Amino acid sequence: MSFKIKNITNRYTDDLFDLRNNKQTRRFSLNKKKIKFEDHQKWLKNIDKKTNKIFIILSKKKNLVIGYTRFKIFKNSSEVSMAINQDFRNLGLSKKILLDSEKKINTNIFKAFVHSSNIKSIALFKSANYKVIKNLGVFIKMKKVVKKKSNKYLKIIQQIENIRKKNNSNWMNILRIAFENSPKETAKVMIQIYNQDTKISKLSKKLSK
To answer: Last residue of some domain: 146, 169, 191?
Structure first.
């Protein structure tokens, strides 16, 4: 299922309230008490948007609320928490949502406090390369360091690769046109290209010795 990540707006106040107040969410939270709606509204209104990023996750086709991710941002790290609507659980979305949400945050260190009996959440964060760094009893602290610069370079390489694939198709099209209009001359040029490639191959073998 395709999804999109949006900054939270007042339009989704009720949806966020339902997600935060979900029975399972409250069970594994630091504060297990049910949240009052007026307290939820007050919290959302007064939250520092510079140090807190809340994203609402929507299905692309119908704009259905899948869940939310929240990042509490410190100087060099971010603390992440998330919740998925029960209708969208066990669909393989959580990991992708977590990773895509991280890309919207500038810090490269991510931490999470997970209830020690929340096996699924622990497995989720581990699958996203989080490591357990401290056992706090009821909760465990998990951490991940992302090499964002490296990821940036890999993305650029991927873009180059995709462009080269398209360009290779263009070269093949030129070759077809050449053979259709002047097959003998084209064949001669191809032989020359092959001969030069052979020379390059022989020189390359010398480098590996």
So the answer is: 146
